[in-house]
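Quick one:
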Amino acid sequence: MAAKRSAKILHEFGPRKAVALLSEPKLDGHEFLRPWALTSLICWATLDQRPGKREPRTDEAGKAINRKGFRSRRAKQAGQLFAAYWLDRALVEAERIGQPLTMNNLPSDVELAFRHFLQTGGFLSLAEFNGGKIVRLIRKRALLRELSYVYHMIDFMCRKHEFRPDIPQRIDLARAYVIKNEHDHLGMYKESKIEKIWNQYRSSSPYIYAFFRHISLNARLNIPIREVAAGLLSMAQGQRIQRLLGYAAHAADRVAETPTRGVRVRDFLEVPRVRPQLRPFTWENAWLEGFDRKSPIA
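Output:
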């Protein structure tokens, strides 16, 4: 991969670009890009879907200007944080083997990470922004609860497609199943709240389905930030990331079968589909037969 193309990719994050990077078999000395893309993608799919608190923009007459709907602030912060981890890891390893790095002998991947780190604010930016805040945000109980509803709705759609393809995919059916299943031990949200959660995260719902187990496990075990970064580095390599992207693509196909809009299905046009491991229906079959699609969800 040419250095100019790498710099262009790093300049502006986008989910489709991240999926393309993670799907490339070889990055020719720019392996930093793969875990950087995964880190940014996970934080975009979870943290950047939440409403922001920015001051409204106005024109010269004081009239409000609509901002673009796409948010990527947390994704960019997470990417910069991973660049710092990559640099630290390279410097420590070079010292360990007795070959300290200088600006004149940086490996191509370390040089790429360093350039990106400086272009996104450098050390002053890290001083102003506590990188650990990203980890704390993604481990907040309220966020994980919201993500769990999205995960279980998508999981139901995948299972219904596999075991009851005779019944059309519908968002209200998945929402009704989540309410019936009662997975939330802290107390189930009401239907209106679940609908709001779905509308908030639907754009990134296939990614949430693929990464939710990893995110929730890290939160439960309270894994230190250095180990989180090392885990992302490992996850971004080889067959594991291809399998996770395949899960996300499979989930996107299921959501595409519903009338809902705004889901990033086109991100996965070139991604081979992978069927996730799915639990067969048990009590759900009788419930599906008795579900009245014209009545309000109880």
